[in-house]
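Problem statement: downstream parser choked on a complex file, so we are re-checking the raw output for the adenosine-5'-diphosphate run. The parser issue turned out to be on our end (a line-ending mismatch), but while we're here, posting the original submission so the record is complete.
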Amino acid sequence: MEILAGDTAWMLISTALVLLMTPGLAMFYGGMVRAKGVLNMMMMSFISMGVVSVIWTLYGYSMTFGKDLGGGLVGSPTEFFGLTTIISEDSVFGTIPTSVFAAFQMMFAILTVALISGAIADRAKFGSWILFVIIWVTIVYFPVAHWVFDFDGVDENGNVDPGGWIANDLAAIDFAGGTAVHINAGIAALAIALVLGKRVGFGREPFKPHNLTLVMLGAALLWFGWFGFNAGSAIAANATAGVVFLNTVVATGAAMVAWLLVERIRNGHATSLGAASGIVAGLVAITPACSAVDPLGAMAIGAIASAVCALAVSLKYKLGYDDSLDVVGLHLVAGLIGSIFVGLFATAAAPAGVDGLFYGGGSDQLVKQIIASFAVLAYSFIATYIIAKAIDMTIGFRVKEDAEVTGIDLAVHAESSYEIGSQGANRGGYAS
Amino acid sequence: MEILAGDTAWMLISTALVLLMTPGLAMFYGGMVRAKGVLNMMMMSFISMGVVSVIWTLYGYSMTFGKDLGGGLVGSPTEFFGLTTIISEDSVFGTIPTSVFAAFQMMFAILTVALISGAIADRAKFGSWILFVIIWVTIVYFPVAHWVFDFDGVDENGNVDPGGWIANDLAAIDFAGGTAVHINAGIAALAIALVLGKRVGFGREPFKPHNLTLVMLGAALLWFGWFGFNAGSAIAANATAGVVFLNTVVATGAAMVAWLLVERIRNGHATSLGAASGIVAGLVAITPACSAVDPLGAMAIGAIASAVCALAVSLKYKLGYDDSLDVVGLHLVAGLIGSIFVGLFATAAAPAGVDGLFYGGGSDQLVKQIIASFAVLAYSFIATYIIAKAIDMTIGFRVKEDAEVTGIDLAVHAESSYEIGSQGANRGGYAS
Amino acid sequence: MEILAGDTAWMLISTALVLLMTPGLAMFYGGMVRAKGVLNMMMMSFISMGVVSVIWTLYGYSMTFGKDLGGGLVGSPTEFFGLTTIISEDSVFGTIPTSVFAAFQMMFAILTVALISGAIADRAKFGSWILFVIIWVTIVYFPVAHWVFDFDGVDENGNVDPGGWIANDLAAIDFAGGTAVHINAGIAALAIALVLGKRVGFGREPFKPHNLTLVMLGAALLWFGWFGFNAGSAIAANATAGVVFLNTVVATGAAMVAWLLVERIRNGHATSLGAASGIVAGLVAITPACSAVDPLGAMAIGAIASAVCALAVSLKYKLGYDDSLDVVGLHLVAGLIGSIFVGLFATAAAPAGVDGLFYGGGSDQLVKQIIASFAVLAYSFIATYIIAKAIDMTIGFRVKEDAEVTGIDLAVHAESSYEIGSQGANRGGYAS
Amino acid sequence: MKLITAIVKPAKLEEVKSALSSHGVAGMTVSEASGFGRQRGHTEVYRGTEYTVDLIAKVRIEVIVDDKDVDGVVSVISTAASTGSVGDGKVWVTPVESVIRVRTGESGVDAI
Amino acid sequence: MKLITAIVKPAKLEEVKSALSSHGVAGMTVSEASGFGRQRGHTEVYRGTEYTVDLIAKVRIEVIVDDKDVDGVVSVISTAASTGSVGDGKVWVTPVESVIRVRTGESGVDAI
Amino acid sequence: MKLITAIVKPAKLEEVKSALSSHGVAGMTVSEASGFGRQRGHTEVYRGTEYTVDLIAKVRIEVIVDDKDVDGVVSVISTAASTGSVGDGKVWVTPVESVIRVRTGESGVDAI
Ligand SMILES: Nc1ncnc2c1ncn2[C@@H]1O[C@H](COP(=O)(O)OP(=O)(O)O)[C@@H](O)[C@H]1O
Ligand SMILES: Nc1ncnc2c1ncn2[C@@H]1O[C@H](COP(=O)(O)OP(=O)(O)O)[C@@H](O)[C@H]1O
Ligand SMILES: Nc1ncnc2c1ncn2[C@@H]1O[C@H](COP(=O)(O)OP(=O)(O)O)[C@@H](O)[C@H]1O
């Protein structure tokens, strides 16, 4: 096929939009922790842009989209090593340059591992986190992304170039990553939180967000970037992208309203953190479903997922794990709901062209969605737990307690976030 | 017509850009209030994304772009109910999927009502504001947008599908919403400010902006997003979009300079709040005119409007209404100037192809512009006043005085915005 | 040629992205100064959007892309005066409307001069800075941009329309502005820092960043916008843009990692300011090279340049000039490395189609790169020094010492940035 | 001389400041504080979890006065700061042995 | 009456507050401070340059008590604030001549 | 023992701190304050409206010293803090009845 400038334009900007999601996430997360840990929180996301972009270029794209090594489980890590072979003008993916496709998909890998960091606020060694990022994307993300995102293709000789098992053999629908991104990161967050244990003072001290304007800015950038994530997953500027875009807005709007309603009823107050959280819940839930439902279905999925998340975020106190910023309560819960509800709310009128249970399509698709969701969940939980535990038992994953109490920013990064008081910089620094 | 990927790509990203304007506005406004009210200020914008996206999907798009119910006054609210009929691949608007057009126009509705909130900082009940949003977009925005943005079309049978009276019968030029958005929101802001009355301490206490970096960030995001607003209103990536884009930059740059000059002369200091305000004034003023003038005309409109706004913002102290963040002084004043100046500065060399008074085109267009502006102004003022008054007299629109004094964030949202001090989170919170 | 909607869409959004870089820079710089100077720091960038957009429209575009006045040195300042002649539908540049090209290139002028301001934090008179901006873009930027960016064209009569000497006669490769933007701004920063002298307390007081979340937000917006800067310089949504985009990500990721490694080894801590700085170093270094290398080459350039910058930023303390925010250490150093390394790492497999020294292409291109780099460096240093000195000796460039000590925001802009303390706005303001 | 320290509601700072000015008090020092006492704190809600914040924002005002002015100034402050509702604050007086004005080196009553 | 001023580590504020409440102390005033003393400061790094920050965040707690309660309250505070490591802080006692509750005008011990 | 409280210009904090260190003072407590006095405030401008801000940022320094050191320390502070221009601040001395070091429980001069 030939390169189409219109599709390429959309995919270029979509890629930039998805890149922006990671700093957006850094702010969303960073605003929620205490001032003494905001820089570390942001750095856990930022470093993912650094490390994963390099790995992806070296072998990550290959493992995800390279020739399948068998069973739809993982691609060949060497096929596109260094991405030097995809930069020629003839290297085309669909109607866009392969270089653009490779960059677009890179952003998904960057974001997914960054999502996990919300579970371990204020207490992870930075070096251990970097090691975790490297191992996790290699062992967990690239294979799972291969399962879900690598559709069978045709090679130069006209033979089938087989892709991942979920996309092709199972044929579950996951348009933009409900399973590969959100269930994956959400359950990994649970595993890593279990390994690291609770923050000092968890359940006793308040840990209130130190900067809610930063949280809202982060949520806004996430929403903005998510259009690239979802509508960009059409890999073209076409009618599918249009419907996906519309569904993404509507689901998110409904989700924000739903979360605020739950809060108003339960606590008497609709909060700004609730609005930001509802936005993210809605975005997560519509991600797998956005090509398969109509705007009313999108509204329903967004609203239901968000309301459930609003209730689920308190579970950690009861169950006693410190998923600090509710990655489980948001990404796992909304990811599961979104992925599974495709089997209920899908309508053949939407681009994906499949009817779900509620639209007379029977439970076929529903079953596929459930299998895909739990396959990813199980693999990711086990593999993540092992990785995190191995790191913890060797180089250690957690900072010393007094570093945690003083503040991880100072202890790990030798920085303090704000110096805003009236005598500001005079609070005692010297150039040594 | 067929879908053109290039045009669709531009409209997809334009839609995302316009969505981003609402959080941008939230920050622009939020930074200007005191720290104890920033979350509420931002929430009044954010909630518009939640509520209006749902309403627009249900019946708003229909009321705006549905079959005219007669006289070019309003469209049928049921025609596109739920937007389920526009998601098929054949549903095309111009050269883009109808879903994209519907999403693009949705963002205008979201933003317009959010603009109004600047007039009532620190004192509105959140539930009443939500009710206001719902009623206002329904009774004021959708009809007015229909007047201005719904051009006559042709239906499946080749018959004329009549649109709104300002666009078609009057043929006033309002490229991207000087009347429907800015005059409309600006005068509504006056009406609602009159109903709610002044903040406790108005004219006596200083009410200085609590975070000017947030204001500047907001202004930057507004400018960035406004390219989608204005150049996206070409509904294509063509020469018109290009000229509109160029005019939008130039007018805004000139406006920033003009505002700062006024300040330098009057107060001896060019301020950052002035720069941010000048940016917004310029963007507002060029909005209706951006397709009708050349870059020198754009410069003139931007500079004049901004200088007038810089003088107009002080009026509220003399006239005694508390338009807290100068929605009247910015959006109404610059909206009027921009809309009316089309009649002066329009040049046939520009895409709209009309000559204004200064370019030898006589006063025809000028008269049309004035009629359109004042029609919107009058309708919006009266309707808004009635809506706001009705809410105030029934469920009440204003929080209790002590809630206002303590701070609306705490009273209404049970949150506080920042916890940045050196002992930060220790200032006395407990998990209960 | 005809206008292609796909290319136009990409260039419209690229232009918006590059506009956003200037506020991004304002935040990156603003967060690094003390709280009492953040507004002035941001205003030095913002005012560039105001002043340069006007000048560019009047005569800047003409001087840059107008008919060459001889020797490839500068274009005719009057040819496109006011940009009124390029708004017709037939005015096409390549495959996009000329209006879009003019707007895109305007953003480069705005950004370049804003970059310089980092060298003179906390101490420049605002009026003098504005004067500097006007003179500098006219005498330095427009000519240099003409040298580098104005490729020979063909006029209406089929005759050659000669452009700048570096682009055409020398044929050095500078895809997106390593010489014209970064070396230019970097060396100008040194010149202006020498003229203004050191801040009160330089080398003795700590001057620590007052808000690192703002710095990180700025870095993120810069990265996001830089995709428009680099990939937009393809002036089309094609394979070149794709490769450029991919190289831009990879170089930046590697650069972030490299900077953090240097810090970890030297200081024992990887910092968030280091991550933000590494991002910028990588972006600068890849800018000239992004079309000429493959992803592995991009990685190498990014990493090397960033590591060198991480070491270079301390030089100012040894050499004794106060380049406050390290414009020299980042933009000059990384700009030189990126520009010159094209001669080493270029590969004919990349879009530019040239082999560098390491790829068997000999030292030809290397020599060209060095000539181009030092030509720009020499001209810019001398011209900038003269301009800054002339301003300093006439109207004065520096604020009074007590204004600097109290804080330039208050002295020059009569504003204070934050009012966040628990009794916030009560710290003593009155409406007078 | 005496040091009068007053803990008052932030919203009353302006009034106290004006009242002191009118009363002829030439200077004062103000700082941020937060207080705990009979006044109940407030509840904040983050993701459904409620936090009780029991330290309430207050302002500390310090004024050095000559012995003979103590009673007058204390009553000016407490009048201006009063809203009649719980949490209005305290005023207390402590002895000061000497005062110096840094600029001039003056000491005693001249330094106030 | 006496004014007890305690400079303690921020992380100990909650404990001190609870301990005082249990001890029956009705009110206190808290403010931010930073301290310099035997405790070594920390080093921050910005673009490779190291800064020594020697003022360490502390909290100041002020409690007015009746003369007879001084010793009890001082010991409650110092027990609750202690971690045994350097920088735990100081508690000092100064005389107070009079106290007034703004809301009621009560004075003396009744005002506490 | 005595408590020396100094209100000085923020820009002078470093100098005062060094001077005290050189003088052998082992510790001090610093906090943010703002002051009102002979020094004129400044004007800020927001959207054309001018605000007079009359509380100017200051730093409060507190040092507990043994009786015999009072005069020395006061003069070290006032020398280091002086710029000779209005607003340089005040230093005052108040009596302290007892001091305790939290970490060790030491009291009196040993606790300083
Ligand atoms: N014993 C005390 N010591 C020091 N400060 C106190 C004491 N009691 C109260 N305060 C301060 O006075 C403020 C008001 O006290 P509170 O008991 O809430 O109300 P009221 O004085 O009206 O009875 C408190 O917030 C606190 O700052
Ligand atoms: N002489 C002093 N005057 C006032 N405050 C002091 C004095 N010495 C110490 N402090 C305060 O007490 C805190 C703890 O003192 P430091 O000497 O660091 O530890 P420790 O009391 O455990 O020996 C300091 O941070 C400071 O706030
Ligand atoms: N009577 C007072 N009580 C308490 N603090 C005072 C008093 N007078 C002045 N101050 C403090 O001293 C600072 C400097 O005083 P000011 O009168 O402005 O200058 P100067 O001491 O040089 O005459 C003030 O900002 C204030 O913080």
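For whoever reads this later: Residues 423-432 of chain B have pLDDT under 50 and may be disordered.
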